[in-house]
Amino acid sequence: MRKLLIFLTVLCLLAAASSAFATEILINGGFEDGTGNQAPPWSYWGGTGGAVANPSQDANNPSPRVWSNFGNPTYINVAAQNIYDKLWLMPGMTYHVHAQYYIPSSEVQPGITPRAGIYMTFTNGTFVRILDPRVPDNNVPPIPNANIPVTDQWYTFDFDWVCPGNPGDPPLQCSYMSFRWYGTDGNTIPVSNPGGYIDNCSFSAEYYMPTFSGYVKDAATNNGIPNATVTISTSTGVVLKTTTTNSSGYYSVAFDWPYPLPAGMPLKVDATANDYISRGPQSFTVTGTNPAIPNVLMDAPPKISGFCYTTNSEPVAGAKVTVTNGSTFTVTATTGTDGSYSVFTEVGGGVYTVSATYHNKPLDPPSRVVDTTSGSQSNVNFTYSGPVVPRPSDLLFSVDTDVLPDSGPTGPWPTVVPTGGSLTPIATPEATILGNVKWESNVYTDYDGYRFGTSYWDDQGQHPIPCNGATIVMALKPTRNTTSVPWTSCVDIFYDRLVLGIRNNDGLVNVRRNGSLDYSTTAIPDGQETILSIVVQPDGSYVVWANGAQMMTRDSTPEGFTSMVPGVTGGGINGFGTYINVGRNNPDGWTTFNGYIGDVYVYKVALTNEERTQLESLVAEKFIGPTISGTCYKQSIYGNGPLSGAVVTVTNGSTFTKTATTGPDGTYTVFTEPGGGVYTVSATY
């Protein structure tokens, strides 16, 4: 059994005084990472809080470090920085933190409770503070009976700490760590010369680098299944690693540094294979370097497959196909970007009714009866006569609220595109129903949001997203929050490469494009259901629309918009600027949008105005009501052309009247009422 230890050791002499003077800190050793490699000695020598530290010797010089400090410190620390490739921490893993602080009686006064702590900064922007739980936090009175006696003694800092995050999340790279010794909050440390010692500092965890192996087998024949995709995931479904079985159905997956697994961590193994369906994931626990893992059993039931097309033979992506026998079996599948679907039925087959809907509208025929007792049935196709989501193959991702629960935590939000993907929740976003329509409730004070995929900067380097402009179309219902922040992120790509949001305090639309930050001059009303869209052209220019009305325009930029590059801000492996998010950005809870989020479409291309309005109408019909759109033309002896600035009025004569102004291309869109109605449309110029 291979037991590894992350260990960090410091031996130092700390001293400070109320006036400026020179002092020495003696350092011995460095720390060791999980591979047994010894890191250099501390690369940075921390000084005193609220004072100025001026190192007079570089970090690689073995001589004592000497600096001048000024003022009365509130803490003294020793720290290491720029240690990106040396200290990796696993989210959800339990670490044991230990340090000994020698506190001479000359430096302790009655009623003073020394506080010990460790501060860490990670490359993804996470900041962690660990304080000894037996002593007070900031602005909290000292714990009763916890005062240090006025005698020479060692004060021991010794407890367990769980690294933030979920088991299976990417490992965190610690870029900075410091051990600190504090006085009582709000006071300077009452030190005199000589000072105290920090000694025997350690940061450790028990974990393994195991190899998991086993077989994927046909449950009926017990034969191995070749070319099956095997997935190792956490108990909550976070995928850790995948591999493929050989010709005998055997697989082997090795976990190595910097992806260790903590002892006792529960995991699952499952598999997918052509013409097979798994009987379910097998659970096991990390108990050593080669734990026993149960085999994955699979069945080969018949399946029903086909396509959903428009009457123009275009694929219908995102259609819901339901297969049911009316009692014991019901499965719903979503069509992919090519309009295809496939559903495994029961072992032995049966007679099933198959139907399809798209945005809650039935496809033709309304249903088909299919018998699979003789084997799989293909070309069970359906046709849709209405408008569909344009250019599905150019989507980066899209999500639909129909798949969310009616209430409570959403859990991972499955993506329509890519099929089989999902948005990973951050904090606890919940689903809710407003006016018979399902929304995701995004709460600022909870820092709710989602992450699409993983970091686009890993140990293989950056992974830019090639694009030909970009488009975002989404349904939003903002709720005012008085907290004022520079921007919010309804969709956030790489922190500042492309951001679309509505500010919580004033309703202004904010856009970040290649680092810039722009605001609209008009606000989205509090509580208004809004279809918010942005189209960025390849030259970098963009236009923003809200419920069909143009809100913002910006000119082109020299760098254009043909690639979305991760980590321009917040770079590095798992850096905070290397993620794609919905509802907030990755590192900052303060960017959280406060309100409700509906369907979201993010494209790697600039949609045409016709394509954009088609998509907006589809989304609006679900979250607001049907739309009325068209184009106003002017006639002249030189021919017809679009009429910009015409005012179009839509009214039912009593309870509903709305106006819209045509854009430069002469087009307009008016969002009507849920359920629609009969309206009179007129235009003036």
Structural write-up:
The longest helix is centred in the C-terminal third of the chain and has 15 residues, at 609-623. This protein has five domains: 7-205, Jelly Rolls, CATH 2.60.120; 211-299, Immunoglobulin-like (Sandwich); 306-384, Carboxypeptidase-like, regulatory domain (Immunoglobulin-like, Sandwich), CATH 2.60.40; 392-621, Sandwich (Jelly Rolls), CATH 2.60.120.200; 625-684. Mean pLDDT is 78; it is low at 1-76, 81-86, 134-151 and 183-196. A hairpin with a 2-residue loop joins β48 and β49 (549-554). The chain starts with 6 loop residues before the first strand and ends with a strand. The radius of gyration is 31 Å and the shape is globular. The chain is built from one helix and 59 strands. The relative contact order is 0.08. The strands form 15 sheets. The chain has a 17-stranded antiparallel sheet that branches. Strands 6, 7, 9, 10 and 12 form a five-stranded antiparallel sheet that branches. The chain is an all-beta fold and 685 residues long.
Chain-wise SSE layout:
Blueprint: E1 7-8, E2 11-13, E3 21-25, E4 31-32, E5 65-69, E6 75-81, E7 88-89, E8 94-103, E9 115-122, E10 127-131, E11 153-162, E12 172-182, E13 197-204, E14 207-208, E15 211-218, E16 229-234, E17 239-244, E18 250-254, E19 261-262, E20 266-272, E21 277-278, E22 282-285, E23 296-299, E24 303-310, E25 320-324, E26 330-334, E27 340-344, E28 351-358, E29 361-362, E30 368-371, E31 382-384, E32 395-399, E33 408-409, E34 413-417, E35 422-426, E36 430-434, E37 437-442, E38 449-452, E39 457-458, E40 461-462, E41 465-466, E42 470-478, E43 491-493, E44 498-502, E45 508-513, E46 518-523, E47 530-536, E48 542-546, E49 549-554, E50 563-564, E51 580-582, E52 595-603, H1 609-623, E53 627-631, E54 633-634, E55 641-642, E56 647-651, E57 657-661, E58 667-671, E59 680-684
Parallel strand pairs: 15-23, 24-31
Antiparallel strand pairs: 1-4, 2-13, 3-5, 6-12, 7-12, 8-11, 8-13, 9-10, 9-12, 14-19, 15-18, 16-17, 16-20, 20-22, 21-23, 24-27, 25-26, 25-28, 28-29, 28-30, 32-34, 32-52, 33-36, 34-35, 35-38, 36-37, 37-52, 38-51, 39-40, 41-50, 42-47, 42-52, 43-44, 43-51, 44-45, 45-46, 47-48, 48-49, 53-58, 54-55, ...
